[in-house]
Amino acid sequence: MTTTSPQATDRTDPVHSQLQYQLAVFARRMEQVRTSDGVGALDRAAYLLLDRLERHGPVNVKALADALGVDSSTVTRQVAPLVAAGLVGRVQDPADRRAVRLALTSLGAHRLSEVRDGRAELTRRLVAGWHPEEQHAFCALLARFNLAMESYTADRHGHQP
C-alpha cells in the first residue's frame, strides 16, 4: 500500500502537504499496531501518564494535568481505570495529609516496562534497515517537531511549555 495521496502532491506546497498527510498516516498506523499485536496494550494516554509518574514520582491530579497539557477532569477520567487495574495508587501527600497524590504501583511499573520493551523492539524492527545516522536524525527531528507542537499549543493557551 502506498502512502502518497493525490492531495499530498499539491504543487503549491508539496512538502507541507505531504508532511501533514504522512503524519495522519503515521497516527493511524500507530493505532493499528497498538491494537493489533498487543505491543502497546496501554493506550497513549495511559502510557504517557504512567511514564510521567515513573519519571517524576507521586504527584497530585492538578500537577499531573499541567505536566501532560490536559485539564484535571481529563486526568481524573484517565487515571480511574489505572487505579482500578492496580497500576496507579493514591498515597497521602506528606505536605498536606488531607490531600492525595497519584503514584505508580509496582504492578504499574512492571506493566510500563513490558509495554516500553515491546514498543522498543517494534521500533528496532521497523528501522532495522536504516543507517544508525538516519535513526538518530529521525529521532531528533521527531523530538523537535513534538516540541514545536507543544510550544504551539502552549502559546495558544497562554502557557509556558
Notable traits:
single chain, 161 residues, mainly alpha, 6 helices, 9% strand
Outline the structure in words.
The chain is mainly alpha-helical. It has 6 helices and 2 strands; from the N terminus they run ααααββαα. The protein has helices at residues 14-36, 44-56, 61-68, 72-84, 106-126, 132-157; strands at residues 88-93, 96-104. The protein has a two-stranded antiparallel ribbon. α2 (44-56) crosses α5 and α3 crosses α4. The protein is globular, with a radius of gyration of 19 Å. It starts with 13 loop residues before the first helix and ends with a helix. The model has no long low-confidence stretch (mean pLDDT 86).
What is the count of β-strands?
2
Q: Distance between the terminal alpha carbons, to the nearest Å?
A: 37 Å
Shape: globular
Structural class estimated from helices and strands: mainly alpha
In DSSP terms (H or I, runs of 4 or more residues), the helix count works out at: 6
Strand order of the largest sheet: 1-2
Largest sheet: 2 strands, antiparallel
List the helices and strands and how they pair.
Elements: H1 14-36, H2 44-56, H3 61-68, H4 72-84, E1 88-93, E2 96-104, H5 106-126, H6 132-157
Antiparallel strand pairs: 1-2
Helix pairs in contact: 2-5, 3-4
Short description:
This protein is mainly alpha-helical and 161 residues long. Helix content is 65%, strand content 9%.
